[in-house]
Specification:
The structure is a homodimer. By secondary structure, chain A is α/β, with parallel strands linked by helices. Chain A has a single domain, classed as Rossmann fold. Chain A has five helices and eleven strands; from the N terminus they run αβββαβαββββαβαββ. In chain A, the strands form three sheets. Chain A has a six-stranded mixed sheet with strand order 5-4-8-9-10-11. The first copy, chain A, has a two-stranded antiparallel ribbon with strand order 1-2. A two-stranded antiparallel ribbon of chain A has the order 6-7. In chain A, strand 10 and strand 11 form a beta hairpin. The longest helix of chain A is centred in the first third of the chain and has 14 residues. The radius of gyration of chain A is 16 Å and the shape is globular. The first copy, chain A, starts with a helix and ends with a strand. At the A-B interface, strand 3, helix 2, helix 3 and strand 5 of A face strand 3, helix 2, helix 3 and strand 5 of B. Strand 5 of chain A pairs antiparallel with strand 3 of chain B, so a sheet runs across the interface.
């Protein structure tokens, strides 16, 4: 997706340790027009897949996920990182974050993920794939099926993309970064 | 907004202590079509107001806020509840949550809220107004102006609505709940 790649080159910041900062247009301040283009691209890439629900994890996944859900005409469900006191039938999974060097739980209410429901997982970044694996675990617990995963940015120099594709999951990433070496953004 | 009120009566759950649970369609699982209708209604109610940016707080505010921003053709900025290690020029404010009986910080990067920028704050609930006041504090620190606040659901039996309107803020709430006494939802 060229508009996205150009924007990453223009406004993305490459920090030490393979961190790509896109908080001026993707995951803190959000360019709503670009996000709509991103959502349309996801909808196009999964147009041949039957999807009952779009799922994501708070907070950065919510904006792209709700727009994709709106385009597909299906509900969206986001996993929470804190267990709300009023949640029923909680399903939980532990996710290890390499960026933050700590584990956190993600949870959903089992009421909203049904057996055999076909889900599209949407998120901002794919790096080591731990968040995606956590979501896959939640879906498995619920008996639901993840029929696709869409990421705005994939870091191909980390292992998540290979790991998910090796499991046979249909993964689509809109901008694939081959390297951030010497703080230079290089696309695949 | 009648569609919303009917949906609250149909799928909302009233719990002890004045809690209204709408997690099947508003703030956990989200009905994307309804959320788009909600966003259109906000856009309509603020059509005579000049708006440079839509602002909200993670996580429940993000879905309505990004849709409103998309309709208005402006960027969206969401305040975070944890300070990211890579954030520049952090502005912080403390918010007390009555529901959770504890305080938390909200923060934004000062880069993304500029002097004299006209902001519309969007959130799912207005109860005691503490989150809204926190956001007002952040905007004040940045020298930005909050020109309106839109809430999906306002609990008129709590003090937030009066407090914000008494400050001269243009507040729009799409469903105003007068009482949840005896676990019965009564609209104003």
């Amino acid at each position: 997706m060229n508009t996205l790649k150009e924007r990453i080159l223009q406004d993305g910041c490459c920090l030490e340790g393979g961190v790509l900062k896109v908080d001026s247009f993707i995951n803190h301040q959000i360019d709503a027009s670009l996000m709509m283009e991103i959502a349309k691209e996801f909808a196009k890439r999964f147009e041949d897949t039957k999807i009952d629900k779009v799922i994501t994890i708070e907070a950065s996944g919510i904006a792209p996920a709700i727009m994709v859900a709106s385009l597909l005409g299906v509900p969206m469900l986001f996993a929470k990182k804190k267990v709300p006191s009023t949640m029923n039938g909680i399903l939980k999974s532990e996710v290890f974050s390499f960026t933050k060097s700590r584990s956190y739980n993600i949870c959903i209410s089992g009421e909203f993920l049904k057996k055999d429901e076909k889900c599209l997982f949407i998120d901002d970044f794919l790096a080591n794939g731990n968040a995606a694996l956590g979501m896959l675990d939640l879906a498995t617990q619920a008996g639901a099926e993840i029929v696709g995963m869409g990421f705005i940015i994939e870091k191909a120099f980390q292992s998540g993309g290979k790991l998910l594709r090796d499991k046979g999951i249909h993964v689509e990433s809109l901008a694939i970064i081959e390297s951030l070496e010497n703080c230079k953004i290089k696309f695949k």
